[in-house]
Every structure is written in C-alpha cells, then in structure tokens.
Amino acid sequence: MSNLDVRHKIAKRIAEELEDGQAINLGIGIPTLVATYAEGKELYFQSENGLLGIGAPPTPEELDAELINAGKEPVTITSGASFFSSADSFGMIRGGHIDVAVLGILQVNTKGQIANWAVPNQPILGVGGAMDLVTGAKKVIGAATLFTKDGSPKVVKELTYPISGIRQIDLLVTDYAVFNFENGEIGVTELLGDLTLEELSERIGIQLNWRGTDDKSRGNSICNT
Amino acid sequence: MKQKIVENPKNLASLFKDGQTILTGGFGIVGTPLTIIDVISETDVKHLHVVSNNLGDYGMGLHQLFMQGKIDKATGSFFTINKEAVIAWSKGELDIDLLPQGTLAEAIRCGGAGIGGFYTKTAVGTELAKGKEERIIDGERYIFEKAIRGDVAIIRAHKADRLGNLTYYKTARNFNPMMATATDIVIAEVDEIVEVGELEPEHIVTPHVYVDYIVKTEYTKEGDRFVKS
Hints:
The complex is a heterodimer. Chain A is an alpha/beta fold.
C-alpha cells in the first residue's frame, strides 16, 4: 500500500467515529482527508482562524483569497456558517464546545499524551493552535502512520519529542491498529494491518492489551479474508 | 466629528517610532494591513517589537519589515514558515516569544479589556509553560498568562464609516478585533469607507471608540494573491 493509500485508510477509519451534529476541528495532514470520507453526515467543521462551517474546496470562480482554513488553503463555507475572531474561536475550543479534534501526531506515550508541535534539537518557533486543541476539545482523536520513515514506532513508553499538553487523547488511529487509552493504559481495539496483536507488541516494544469486541480480529483474520 | 480618515497613507508615517510595540492583524497574509506595513517599510523606524500570529507570508506583510532589519522581537504563535526568521533567531538576532495561538488571542483580548492576565489549561506541563505561575483551580492545573498591550495596532477591516465603526470580511477578521482594543493608537486599513449610518448597527464588530485613523487599502485580490493596485 502506498503512503497515500495508507493516509486515506486512516482518514476513512476516523470518519467512522464522527457522529451527526458534531462540531469538528481537523488538523493539517491526514486529518484534513477525513472530511472527504464523512460525506452524508451532518458535521460542522471548524477552523481555528475563525470559521464554523467549512465547505468544499472552491472552484476557480469561488476562490476568495480572504477565505482560508487554518492550513491557509482556500475554502468555501456551508449554509449556516459563521465567522468570528481568533479570541472567540479559541474560546470555543478551550471552552469545550468542539466535539472532536482530529490531530496529526508525531508521538504518543502509553498514557495517551501526545507530541505534535515540535521535534527535538530544532528551533521551537511554531505552535499554532496545537496545544489549545489537545487541551480543549471534548474528544481528541490522533491520526498517524504507526512507524516513522526509518521504522521507529510513534507509540512509545516515554515521549522523546516535546509534549503538547498533559491531557490524554481518546483514540489513536494508525495504519496497523486503533488504540485507546483507559485508566492511563494503552490498549488495542481493532487491528487494521497485517500484524497480529503479538507481532504489533513486539514491533513497538510494548505489551498491548486487547480491548476489541470481536476476538477473531486479534490476529490472523486479515490473512483469512 | 473627529477627522479619522487619512487620504494619503504616507501621512501615517509620523505615528511610528523606534522601539514601539506594534500589534499587527493577520493569519498567514489574510487580514494583514499590507498598505500600512508598506508605509512603515518606507520609514527609518527600527527596534520594533511586533505582536502577530506570524511574520507575514509570501515575503509580504511583516516579512518585509523583518527582512529590512526593523524587527528586534516578535510575539506570536507560528514563525516556522519564515525560514529567515528561524535563522535570525538561531543567531540571536531576533527575540521570539512563542505562545499558543489561543493564548495569544486571549492575552490581547485581556489587554484591551482591562484584565491583567488569565489562567489557562493550554500548555500546562509543556515547554511553553516554563517559568509561568501554576495554580490548581477546581482540581485542574492552569498556568498564568499575562495580558498583552502595545503602542500601535495596525489592523485590517472590511468597511469603516466616517466615525470609525468597523465590519470585517470572512476569515480576514482573525486577530484584528482584539488588536483594535489593546493599544493607544489604532489604525484601520479598509476596503471601503462609507457614510455614518450606512453600516447596520448589528453588523458592527468594532465600535468607533477604538479606532483613531482609517486608511483605504491599496491592495486588491487576484485569485489567491494580494496585489498592490
């Protein structure tokens, strides 16, 4: 599976988590792709630069340089959309009025705390809305490929990248598995790749608990289908 | 009625002085007062402290002032897009105060509303909380963030009436309404100036008491770009 397909697979799985009527903030990268798989659901996408009700990408005729999302891409608005200031926007985020934030992550520890705003030994000069979103959204879903390009797992015992906040995320969707974090402990609720739970535990060096509903999906099921 | 409209933007130049803290609206380049920044770029003003989400974009806006060496310090949330700023910071030529975007917005709002600071959960336990007072409120950890005020705010709005009431356009609103409240001098760059009474009172976002000077923008939109007309 190409890297592009993998990103779409993660986005598609995350879209299944979203429910009618929710206000959603999608981060940059894989999270942005989630919107394309959520069609048919009544969702209100928020952009932290001051918009609730992001619509489809603009046609050349619709393009407006002063209508952008937080990734600085041109967007359109839906019927019922509203504009507001950055202070109001982050009040909405910190105040718990955004139902779900989907955030790209660089690392997550076994408690569910994430690093997604800076890398070690690089100048720390940008944070944007990352810390506000992880702290304030009612539910936070992390999106990432499970391994970096050099094969290191992004699920780690201790973060080596700078932490984004002390709040524990609710769900992490990767190309190999869906993880949740209950009572500060990581677990797997679903396997999505070609590794069994045991193989996955070995690859990332952490013994993973099974929290899925269907016992068969613990392993091998992918090979059988 | 106080005359707030400045027909020639160049006449704004005398408002800018060395060492001022200038609050500058904009997210990326959207909502940035490009005409007023052009005026500053033509002055000899230096040692500026700018408060802005980022330092311009596409080489425009504050990026232009930074490249001229006019900016000593920047307070904002996202400077990684400016490669030159990152290099200057590494060499110790640029002082940067990095804040989470929501903390930046709220600090300016407080500055304009007579509030000295606020406690927020954002950034607790992170590198951006270093040296900041921590307090437990209702069992949860918060850090103290001081309010931000400045000498001059340069903001971008959509329409102004002759009194200085302002409306905003789409996502060009961003930090502008808060910045309009948090400085001694406020200069608004607008698309259109209308007569008093033409703006619907319910549509006015920034009431006129905040605004000192109004100037018409010299920029127009071409596709996803802003060009000087």
